[in-house]
Every structure is written in C-alpha cells, then in structure tokens.
Design brief:
By secondary structure, the chain is mainly alpha-helical. It is about 75% helix and about 0% strand. The model has no long low-confidence stretch (mean pLDDT about 85).
C-alpha cells in the first residue's frame, strides 16, 4: 500500500498557529467567564483562582432565555424535517413535473436576506397574533431550515438504488410505507445533517428574534445576550458565562454528530 506523503514541521507549525488564532476568542471567552466580576481588562491571562459566580448570575438571569432557544430550536428542527423529508423523497423518486423549477425556487429562497423575510413576516405576524410567541419563531426559523433540509435530503435520497424502492413496492408496501420503512432509515446521515444545521441556524438566529419579539415573554438567548451587555457591562464574567452556556449545546451536537454530518454532506456534494 502506498503511504501518504508526510507533512513537514513548517506546515505543522503554521497549522498550529492558525488553530490557536481561531480558538483564541473561545479561550478568552472561557477565561473571562471565570474571572471575578468587574472590568475584564483587569483580568489575568489564566484563571488561577476561578470564580464561578458569573455562571450563577448567568443561569439566574438567562436560564429562561436558554430554555426558550432550546424549545424554538427543537421545534424548528421537527417542523423542518417533517416538511422537508417527504418533499425531498417526492422530488428524488417521483416523476414530478417541473422538478428543476421547484429546486431552482428552493435555491432562490436561500438567497433572500433574512432581514427582508423578517420585515415581511412582522406585519403578517401582527395580524395573526404570532408576535412574541414560540410558534411564530419556529415558523420563521423554519423558512431557512426547510429549503436547506430539502436540498440535503433530496441529494442523499437520489443515491438510494431505485431497485430497492421498487422491491418494496413489489412486496406490497405503499408509497407512504416505502418512504417510512425504506427511504427514511437509509437516509439517517442526511436527516442528522439537516437536523444539525437547522438547529444551528435557529440557535444562532438574531434577526428573527429581534424583529418578531418585543417583550420578555419569549426571548431567545441571542437576543438575551445582546440586551444583557447593556444592562450588565460591569459584570463581564456573567456575560461571558452566558456566551459559554449558549455555546455548549451547539458544540456538543457538532461533536456527537460529526461522523454523520461528514457522510451526509459528502453524499450531497457528490450528487
């Protein structure tokens, strides 16, 4: 077997330097969260005596916003996959007239700036009573999740051999059962990839949260941090602790789903 050419020390050192530069903001965020309350500029480069009071303050002040973000993100993932999975299957295996036109329209929706969608939704939400509601944010965030999930899952479902689909139909399975019992289990990587990115879109959303919420009843963590800075500028440890807590769900999901995401994304790229 031919061995891959080794990388020299210069490229390794350059890689380490680039990685350190990219991770420095994360390090400084964690470091600042463990400093005593006050101006962060007076804190040391390493928390030799870590102070966890910032995390206690953050959980007390922002705990509800974290739960709100979690509810909205999980709701958006559920709605996006529920709509996108059957749509992707139909576009991949049914002779739908105008498939290319539909896909082009889906791609166009990804190019519309979020602020345009948010402003358009505001007046509609005001009439429908969806402002300051979980359902309103879930629907708004799904406008980005559904098209992306359709594109990812359709590419993956196209790779399912048509013979397997036809064999299931010959055995007596209807279209719905074939989709549920054959196509979905074989598309696990694409489902997890679409779910992960939809969760990340929703978890990091700021525009919809800022435009479609006007009270503290429903306030995602991104908007909570934005308003927290102005109210607690002398408690940077609490602000940074909130940022750390807000980063944990996304980081954990990325680590857990890494191998599924790699397989799902590469399959979509090949198609």
């Amino acid at each position: 077997m031919k061995r891959a050419p080794g990388r020299g020390w210069p490229s390794t050192i350059v890689g380490i330097i680039l990685l350190a530069l990219m991770l420095f903001p994360v390090y400084w965020m964690v470091n600042a969260s463990l400093q005593p309350a006050g101006n962060t500029l007076q804190g040391g480069w390493f928390p030799f005596h870590p102070d966890f009071s910032g995390y206690a303050t953050a959980l007390r002040d922002q705990g509800r916003n974290l739960v709100t973000s979690l509810v909205v993100a999980l709701g958006s993932v559920t709605l996006s996959l529920g709509l996108a999975a059957p749509a992707a299957y139909a576009l991949a295996h049914f002779p739908v007239r105008g498939t290319n036109l539909v896909l082009f329209g889906i791609l166009i929706t990804q190019m519309v700036p979020g602020i345009v969608v948010a402003n358009a939704l505001y007046s509609a939400y005001n009439d429908l009573g969806l402002l300051n509601s979980y359902l309103g944010l879930i629907l708004a965030d799904s406008t980005a999740g559904v098209p992306f999930a359709i594109i990812i899952m359709r590419s993956f479902m196209q790779s399912i051999p048509r013979e397997i689909i036809e064999a299931a139909r010959v055995d007596g399975a209807g279209k719905l059962r074939t989709f549920r019992s054959v196509a979905l289990p074989m598309s696990t990587n694409a489902l997890i990839t679409a779910a992960l990115f939809t969760f990340l879109f929703t978890w990091s959303d700021f525009l919809f949260a800022l435009t479609l919420t006007t009270t503290e009843t429903v306030r995602p963590i991104t908007l909570g941090i934005y308003q927290y800075i102005g109210a607690h500028t002398n408690q940077w440890n609490a602000i940074m602790a909130t940022a750390v807590l807000a980063s944990i769900p996304a980081a954990v999901l990325l680590v857990v789903a890494q191998r599924y995401v790699t397989a799902g994304a590469s399959s979509g790229a090949i198609k």
